Amino acid sequence: MPRGIAIPPTLETRLGTLRFKGGVPDPASTDKLLDNLDFQRAVQAYLLGLPPVNQLANRQAMLSVGTANLTVPIWEQKVDSRTVELTANDNTPYTWFWVDLRQGPLVLEVPPKVLGLVNDMWYRWSGDVGITGEDRGRGGKYLLLPPGYKGAVPEGYFVIRPSTFSVWVAWRSFLVDGDPKPGVEEVKKLTKIYPLAQASNPPKLTFVNMSGKPFNMVGPSGYQFWEMLHQVVQEEPTDEVDPTTLGMWAAVGIQKGKPFAPDARMKKILTEAAAVGDATARAIGYRMSDRAGYIYDNANWRYAFFGGYKFEWQPGVANLDAAAFFFFLATGVTPAMDTKIIGEGSTYPWTALDSKNRPLDGGKNYKLRLPPNVPAKTFWSVIVYNTQTRSMQQSNQQFPSVSSQDKNVQKNVDGSFDVYFGPKAPAGKEPNWIQTVPGQTWFTILRLYGPLEPWFNKTWRPGEIELQP
């Protein structure tokens, strides 16, 4: 018998003792091994299913407000902590809506001076609109074509071809002298959505102000996760989903054109796998060991994107941890969020740990120092998020943030800024304080809009979050 080929009669593993006769597992060992294989595939299927399930939760929430193609939710007074959404920001008003291409091409008229994106149901980037789109912030007409469309494409439009029929569009308008109203009014006045055939008589849109309203767009992690994943697979073309991902989903009983009906054994495995998948995403998200996701050596600041907006180790090689991390914690995929052009786009360093690698405790006090000359051409902000919901921390503060947009924010004599976190504000430091909640843990994102060269060459870097006496 050549060395290294045979398996011994007994094998001690994390599954317990496995027994073999001439290399053939006995019935009990076979059951253990196949249950473990189903469980392993289910955990991987869960992590790979985060993008479409996140999108379905997003869509279901949005369509509870009104019909696709006719309803445009907008946070007129900016997003606040009453909105439960993965790492949304409270810096600018959001316009956030779904369109349906099942009846054919749609025209989307985008107002000027917005920054936006188009993502499909698989959370793939379809295109940008606004400042980083083909209209370059001047406003323009975009033609969204459904999957498989082979008809004529008229001139005069910026064309986007999503790979699914359900399509998410989101953009930000900006403050004018600290006021969101001018940008919001421009959006409401100039946004249009209509079938190509109705270009001469577009239907009236209904804008719904979402600011200050309790609202949840974050998907569940239990058994319902699998039912939602099955729904997306049935509803949308899967041509753009890679065979390995589809194979993982098929291994747990989710295939195009087939019912999802796991037996009692498989349902038990799927329920546990959803719990372990959620726990694994939290381990990747909050305590990732791979230093590729960190910005500096021996520091806890991390990249929001690593592996690019396609989440790859190299072209054509998926970085599975990068994707699971992002889709567990964030929304909105676009190359613009990963730009390295000085003064353009934005960057999002973030951390969930203090300088001693401990989770950030909502009952304790912390300080973050931003050294002088924060390298942000437009503005910077620091926002606190809850580690359970991955959404803005709900507290007595409607907007849990400190930002250079706030004229009251205090600058130190040397030009640096101190940001304080804790249940109560340090005396006299209220403009620079974000409230946290005892019994809850949190993380923070430092947003730099229009990052400058000192950010990219790392001659400027934020301090660590320091626990205060």
How would you characterize the overall build of this protein?
With 469 residues, the chain is α+β, with helices and mostly antiparallel strands. Among the domains are: 66-209, Immunoglobulin-like, CATH 2.60.40; 291-467, Domain of unknown function DUF1214, C-terminal domain (Jelly Rolls, Sandwich). Helices cover 23% and strands 25% of the residues. The chain has seven helices and 27 strands. The protein has helices at residues 27-63, 181-190, 224-235, 243-251, 264-287, 320-329, 453-456; strands at residues 10-13, 16-21, 24-25, 71-74, 83-84, 94-100, 106-110, 115-120, 125-130, 140-144, 158-160, 166-172, 192-195, 206-209, 215-216, 312-314, 317-318, 346-347, 350-351, 360-361, 366-370, 376-386, 401-403, 417-422, 433-435, 441-451, 466-467. Strands 18, 19, 20, 22, 23 and 26 form a six-stranded antiparallel beta sheet that branches. Strands 6-12-8-9 form a four-stranded antiparallel beta sheet, covered by helices on one side. Helix 1 crosses helix 4 (243-251). The termini are far apart. The model has no long low-confidence stretch (mean pLDDT 96).
Secondary structure layout plus pairing:
Layout: E1 10-13, E2 16-21, E3 24-25, H1 27-63, E4 71-74, E5 83-84, E6 94-100, E7 106-110, E8 115-120, E9 125-130, E10 140-144, E11 158-160, E12 166-172, H2 181-190, E13 192-195, E14 206-209, E15 215-216, H3 224-235, H4 243-251, H5 264-287, E16 312-314, E17 317-318, H6 320-329, E18 346-347, E19 350-351, E20 360-361, E21 366-370, E22 376-386, E23 401-403, E24 417-422, E25 433-435, E26 441-451, H7 453-456, E27 466-467
Parallel strand pairs: 4-14, 5-15, 10-11, 24-25
Antiparallel strand pairs: 1-2, 2-3, 6-12, 7-10, 7-13, 8-9, 8-12, 16-17, 18-26, 19-26, 20-26, 21-24, 21-27, 22-23, 22-26
